[in-house]
Write a sequence for this structure.
């Protein structure tokens, strides 16, 4: 099957991509949404230059859906339609078990004439993080929810010892409830790792984020 990936930059979508590829399917596009006011991806806050570098390393074209909050849904549907024009039969998502997310994905895909595929659906959250680490993906924690996790976690690459610290903080191991978001910079589907440095921490009140800058 030829498919597009709903690409957030994070660990779950990358694990979904990996599973699809090893099962013989072909990725033809990455679809990502970018906040036009901040020039970074929605939710994970990844700079556009890093998104471009990942696209190059994966050798998968990037469909950028630039939008404001009010334009988000329409912009995403246009991205799906473009993927279909490129030959996609389906869009793949990394969502795990939040029904509202699944419904939103299915509705957008239906409008674009694509199948909606969720390779990780209803699997154990912690087991998925452990699988992502074990197959060789490298994911740095980019954003944390301030009332759930300390800024110590920002800029740290996920590992089994770090996973235990996340659990000890009483946050969800997978961050599926928004406790943390990641940026995957290397792994088994990458031609080369993405080199970056972590810089200042920005406090948004409810969340904190660390800026990542590409090293050329």
């Amino acid at each position: 099957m030829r498919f597009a990936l709903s690409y957030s930059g994070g660990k779950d979508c990358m694990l979904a991509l990996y599973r699809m590829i090893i099962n013989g399917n072909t990725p033809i596009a990455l679809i990502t949404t970018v906040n036009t006011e901040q020039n970074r991806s929605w939710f994970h806050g990844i700079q556009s230059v890093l998104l471009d570098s990942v696209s190059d390393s994966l050798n998968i074209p990037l469909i950028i859906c630039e939008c404001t909050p009010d334009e988000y849904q329409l912009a995403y549907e246009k991205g799906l339609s473009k993927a279909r024009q490129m030959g996609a039969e389906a869009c793949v998502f990394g969502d795990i078990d939040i029904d509202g997310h699944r419904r939103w994905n299915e509705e957008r895909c239906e409008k674009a004439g694509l199948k909606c595929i969720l390779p990780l659906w209803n699997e154990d959250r912690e087991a998925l993080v452990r699988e992502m680490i074990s197959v060789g993906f490298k994911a740095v924690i980019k954003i944390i929810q301030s009332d759930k996790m300390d800024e110590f976690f920002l800029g740290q690459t996920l590992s089994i010892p770090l996973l235990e610290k996340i659990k000890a903080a009483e946050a969800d191991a997978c961050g599926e409830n928004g406790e943390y978001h990641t940026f995957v910079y290397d792994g088994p589907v990458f031609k080369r790792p993405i080199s970056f440095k972590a810089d200042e921490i920005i406090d948004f009140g409810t969340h904190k984020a660390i800026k990542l800058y590409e090293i050329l």
In short: The chain has a mean pLDDT of 92. The domain at 2-117 is CATH 3.40.50.620 (Rossmann fold). The beta strands are 2-6, 26-35, 40-41, 62-67, 90-92, 115-117, 138-145, 180-186, 196-203, 207-214.
